[in-house]
Write a structure and sequence with these properties.
By secondary structure, the chain is α/β, with parallel strands linked by helices. Helices cover 14% and strands 29% of the residues. The longest helix has 14 residues. The chain is globular.
Length: 338
């Protein structure tokens, strides 16, 4: 492409491509967990992360142990000088004996592009700093997956923290809480230094499902409560799939759901067709699609990796596949592109 645009790819999923064959790869032993504690007062914000909303707004999300703390964000372009504020909402959820803290979501803006803002959540605690994405190319994205919260995670985050990037895309498997709800809290605290400074745009993986059919726990309860994405702004009915523009509309990013129905006739499939039909490739040369497990895969019976993820063992429909400019899928420490 003529545009000077770089995509920085970090994360554990890239390791598998160092192997000539998938069956030759020997997985190393698990890395120890990195558990991040909260040692501040109950009304102080924790697990702060941000995400883009529309063309010039940002959603600030955080948790407080104090369930009566206000859902307010004060912000401005100078440290300690907050010239604007916005209010939002908060909610809690239960999972067996666990009850979450108050999970706050507040949308701020309009914001200027490529601009540093300082902000404070809930009128308490630390001041945070964010930088908005640029209004045109070039834009630098970080793409990671299967993040977890181990010593490997800490190493990955350290590498990312040393880069000057604009936005992070994470197609699934965030905390690896796997029904252990306090691990969601620990994960939020671990990624806060990066996730509070640049937008983190995520979609779900298999480790976010956490469904327990015997006791009728619905899937994705924790994920949907904590990581609210701009699905409504893209006319999606589900937080599990959505799209957004960045770089002033030069790039259109589609975050798909691998664990919600995607067959022809499904709501997600119909939404995707509408979304792609609305993209003017003359104005938007970059079309980027991310999902955790590929919808359609094609390989010989008995080949390495058979049965991983929810992908159907057939080729993609050309009508949809032909629209996609750059797609990324990662599952089971594998990543494929088309």
């Amino acid at each position: 492409m003529a545009h000077s645009w770089r995509v920085l790819v970090q994360g554990l999923t890239s390791l598998a491509f160092l192997c000539a064959r998938a069956d030759e790869y020997v997985r190393p032993p698990p890395s120890p967990l990195v558990l991040t504690a909260h040692d501040k007062p109950a009304h102080h914000p924790q697990q702060v992360h941000i995400s883009v909303v529309g063309t010039n707004k940002m959603r600030i999300s955080w948790v407080t142990d104090d369930r009566n703390a206000p859902s307010v964000v004060e912000y401005g372009k100078s440290r300690g000088n907050y010239t604007a504020s916005a209010s939002g909402d908060n909610a809690t959820y239960r999972y067996f004996l666990y009850k979450s803290g108050a999970i706050h979501h507040v949308t701020i803006g309009p914001l200027d592009p490529s601009t540093t803002y300082h902000y404070r959540c809930g009128k308490a605690g630390d001041e945070f700093t964010l930088r908005t994405p640029p209004a045109s190319l070039p834009i630098e994205l970080v793409v990671i997956g299967d993040l977890g919260q181990t010593e490997w995670t800490a190493s990955t985050l350290s590498h990312i923290g040393g880069a000057d990037y604009d936005m992070l895309l994470l197609p699934g498997d965030l905390s690896y809480a796997d029904t252990q709800q306090p691990l969601w809290d620990s994960f939020g605290r671990l990624v806060q230094p990066l996730a509070s400074a640049r937008p983190w745009m995520v979609t779900e993986g298999n480790h976010e499902i956490e469904a327990l059919p015997v006791v009728e726990f619905a899937p994705f309860v924790s994920y949907n409560a904590r990581w609210r994405m701009p699905y409504e702004e893209s006319s999606s009915r589900s937080n599990l799939y959505y799209s957004f523009d960045t770089a002033g509309g030069a790039a259109h990013v589609v975050m798909l759901g691998s664990y919600v129905d995607f067959e022809e006739g499904s709501e997600q499939h119909a939404w995707l067709e509408r979304d792609l039909a609305g993209v003017d490739r003359r104005r938007t040369p970059w079309l980027i699609v991310l999902l955790h497990a590929p919808w359609y895969i094609q390989h010989q019976p008995g080949a390495p990796g058979r049965g991983r993820g929810r992908g159907r063992h057939r080729g993609p429909r050309r009508g949809l596949a032909g629209e996609l400019g750059e797609s990324k899928a990662g599952h089971g420490n594998r990543r494929t592109s088309a």
